[in-house]
What does this fold into?
Amino acid sequence: MSVRVIQIKDQAEARSVMSEIGVGPAGIELMMPKVITRIIRLCGVKPIPANIIKQEMLSFGGEAATAYGSINHSVETTDLLVFGTLKQLNQLIEKLKIHQFGLPEIAEEIKLVLLNHELAPKAFKLSNKTFNFGQRTYIMGILNVTPDSFSDGGKFNDADSAVACAKQMIASGADIIDVGGESSRPGAKPVSVEEEKQRVIPVVRALVKQTDAVISIDTTKAEVARAALAVGAHMVNDISGLRFDPEMASVVAEYKAALCIMHIQGNPGNMQKNPEYSDLMGEIRDYLSQGLEIAQKAGILSEKIIVDPGIGFGKTVEQNLEILQRLAEFKGLGRPILIGTSRKSFIGKTLDLPIDQMLEGTAATIAVAISNGADIIRVHDVAEMTRVARMTDSILRRKKDG
It folds into this structure.
């Protein structure tokens, strides 16, 4: 006889393990909700509903932790940590539906977050490419047509060289080409709308005509986005999450384009001066969630929205590492997750290496990000990182016989 601890991350793995030891199909389905455990954090709940949630969870054999002051109502609100199996959490959801004090609404939110966490985001089509999330990781190649980007500024200042670079990235595995005409490096100075358009529009136009790749425009300016979408770009990558230009959401909606909403604290000019958070993951999630609301109110198709926690945009080295470690928490938003770690300064600071020696460090962050839920990776070194993604996918998404 031997004893060992095994790791089961999701229901697919639970089914596989139970099948291996000979559990019958009916038994597998019966036990499935008891195998997977989840911890849910609820924020800003008033003491009465918080105490009800705790008591109900205890009655199902689970647990819930609240602030000490929630017992005697000496705090106005409390966060909760709810611990339990999927079965216990589903029992809680059903029980909360018959309570008062806003608990039915809380039940629906818990139900939605759990569902989003367990399922891959819905597939969508851009240009002639269908993105089947959960089946493999998709690659976004970075094409900066700027003189001052942090790692490749000045390399592709003319349209011909930029298009040639993009074609090489496509041949190396890029599914999306992200064209940017304004540096977002820390301390970068803004450029005018006209100058940004002069940099990117010829490149976007040529790529749409000469390639079958999905073309993304990396901009925070609605006028630049409109010009790029008008010549055929398929998506907008907005590092401000629709915050810098109030017209951006309506432009994306008008063209029925895809959108990536990113988190940033501050702006490129000041974001790295002293980034502080009281709840790093919660604040990023709230920012992204609010961006989703802005997008949906403007009429942007929800199934074409991607989220990005914004590695390096108003975060310290430790905060970036924590985001990668806890990336799966953003799956609850129900949208594909894009991650951009390529050649970022936190890698150089962690390894004490210059920018031209970050390949291996970037590769490690990509593998971890995919393992923790990333659906799209935004990279400079497309050929190398495509191999990293394919190898990581082969480990994580392997199909077993039978």
Summary: The domain at 124-396 is CATH 3.20.20.20 (TIM Barrel).
